[in-house]
Request: fold
Amino acid sequence: MAEASGLLSEHLFFQTKARLAVVIAVLSSHMVLPAAQAEAVEEYTIKSVLTLNLIRFTDWPAEVFKGNDGTVNLCVLGDDAVQQAFTLIDKKRVGDRTLSAHNINTGGSQLGQCQVLYVSMEANNITQWLKESHKRPILTIGETDGFLGQGGMVYLKMADAKIHLHINLKATKAAGIWISARVLKLATIFNP
Reply:
């Protein structure tokens, strides 16, 4: 049963990626954006879908969702392009829960309701956000060099027009967060 569920999830990932390519193509044919802005929108759209799929292959300690209203809260730090891309995955299903994406650029006290923190390279005070996130079982995903060395959990590295996953297992274990072996097979494991 778990194998069938995994195959279905993989199929849905590739199906989502194909739909996303069509949406991007349609949107870009109707919008006139500077090349750099269009590339940023496309990059963050792909990163948002990748984040959604990472969440689908992650387990948190049971107490994280006690008293929760059936949502997985994704808190996003970044500029307007980043925020816009993550609205595309808002309200998507994550197992028996619904993803809820939030903009939290205004302060660290908002981390109390987050199960996932996405930190874009445009975010300010990354070190402080990560320090605050270490107080709770929050899956942290970032895109800056040194993110894993600061205790971040998943680093999305752009190289050769591809996104490469790097995972800090020491940080995930310390938070009680478990990432599926299927994801780990696709990632480079960070050893501090």
